[in-house]
Amino acid sequence: MIVLLSNDDGIHAPGLKALAESLQELGDLYIVAPDRERSATGHGITVHRPLRLETVSIPGIKAMAWAVDGTPADCVKLAVEDLLPNPPAVVVAGINQGPNLGTDVLYSGTVSAAIEGIINGFPALAISLTSYGSHDFTSAAEVARKVVNLAMQKGLPRGTLLNINVPAAKPRGIRFTRLGNRRYVNIFHKRTDPRGRIYYWMAGEPLDLEENGDDTDVQAIKQNFISITPIQLDLTDYQSLQILRQQWGEITFTF
């Protein structure tokens, strides 16, 4: 079977290599990733210029690999539409350096690579190590291998990806979770350059919210559990849809 890997930290990121090492015995490995870091690009795609790519050799990894001068979504789209000889059995994005918790998934290039997989009808996973300081991907890579095996054996609901976050310390266990709410404070640092012009540097720190209960990915990581959250492509709020149909009724506009 074909296993397609991508990420947003770039083709030479240590997390991607660790992921490839853990999965290369599962099938024919193909890697299509950005040529440089593309974190927080969300699901952007490149439409106003051509995409260029080059083959890459990753030491110790038996795989066909390409570096693309585009976004993570570009990489997966290009892979499934042109580069792969056959459709992938699974798309795996990661291992991301840093958490992808709660509302982070809306900005994450790694999660967007997995989303592009399910858009094209393939099972997909995104996996992150929830630390910027630790570069030990051993646990995250092992979790990725086990979850991919389970996904291939038991299947995943169509249109659903698994967003996996692994703590840097030894995990206490695994929780199936819902997305929490990650809100940030002190987002912009206002500064002045040497020529007196004002510029802004986006940063910010996560704010603890009471609504992040024990069933959320945010709280699971705080308690040192691995978090596995199913994310669906359909963003429709069906409860609100029903309310609108019942309470608003038929709407007539005159144009």
From TrEMBL:
HAMAP family: SurE (MF_00060). Keywords: Cytoplasm, Hydrolase, Metal-binding, Nucleotide-binding. Pfam families: SurE. It comes from the Bacteria. Belongs to the SurE nucleotidase family. It comes from Desulfofundulus thermosubterraneus DSM 16057. A divalent metal cation binds at residues 8-9, 39, 96. One of its GO terms (cellular component) is cytoplasm. Nucleotidase that shows phosphatase activity on nucleoside 5'-monophosphates. InterPro entries: SurE, SurE-like_Pase/nucleotidase, SurE-like_sf. GO terms for molecular function: 3'-nucleotidase activity; 5'-nucleotidase activity; exopolyphosphatase activity; metal ion binding; nucleotide binding. Binds 1 divalent metal cation per subunit. Residues 3-185 form the Survival protein SurE-like phosphatase/nucleotidase domain. Its main location: cytoplasm. It is an enzyme of class 3 (hydrolase). Its cofactor is Mg(2+); a divalent metal cation. It catalyses: a ribonucleoside 5'-phosphate + H2O = a ribonucleoside + phosphate. It is found in: Cytoplasm. Its EC number is 3.1.3.5. This is 5'-nucleotidase SurE.
